What we know:
This protein is an alpha+beta fold.
Amino acid sequence: xxxxxxxxxxxxxxxxxxxxxxxxxxxxxxxxxxxxxxxxxxxxxxxxxxxxxxxxxxxxxxxxxxxxxxxxxxxxxxxxxxxxxxxxxxxxxxxxxxxxxxxxxxxxxxxxxxxxxxxxxxxxxxxxxxxxxxxxxxxxx
Length: 141
């Protein structure tokens, strides 16, 4: 499982941003038509703006965020990143499923979180910060 060179570069950039706490370069690795698939919403949020808004906010909500494992698909265009974090007094584990295009831009970012108590805390914290804004990015049925 070897990542495509452009994907490897973008993923390295992503890890560098997360480690430094500075996600200001995030728009440079997100495709204009990217979608974000939330663990608390039925429909994905569409556009680079939505992906950047959600990921920046999540990074602010999470405490003690740590990636543990990284897996890649055979085509070298997708990765799965296992993480742990806290939201308030709730601990959670999660997985980021990230699909890139051949240019190394994120085209799909999906998050799954467990346990339910951690997911609920995350949903409440995110909703309080960006609930009104992010709804405008939901894809139609």
